[in-house]
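The protein record filed here:
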Amino acid sequence: MKVFVVSGSRNPNGQTARALNALVDGVKRAGGRAEVCFLPTMKVERCRQCNDAGWGTCRSEGRCCIEDDFAGLVAQIREADAVVFATPVYFSDLSESLRAFLDRLRRITRHEAGKQGVTDKVAMGICVAGGGGGGAPSCCAILQGILATCGFAVVDMAPVRRQNLDAKCQVLRETGAWFAQTVSSGSG
């Protein structure tokens, strides 16, 4: 069982990384494998809204015409058994890097070719808020809506705030094990 983790955080040692590493630890404890990519270190441009109607090959062919790391990341999602999207919370919303990636992903999934390997793939989200931490639940709602639009089978959303990070990391280890077992058994 392979989980692909898409992180919208630049800091591999920050709060979001701590939360996603706890989940990955749980996946591995349950016998799964996990690979993490950090979007801010990759080249993923924002959507160009290619034609006057705001669409392009995303709508007509289920692929994006921009030549960057996006297509490779989508291929990794399609090859994985499950996907986790993790983001720091800024202004009660997704990080800019995750937003850019998901904006393009939801566009290609409007076409049948773009849906392949994405529709009904088990997914979950982790939204980690610093500061006061109040934006984590609304960020989770935003992320869940986008993932549902893409066609993922969303099984969990984990709102985390810096004030409860240690406790949530314990929960995320258990969630990772549950996630791996759920996906392996096909009962997601």
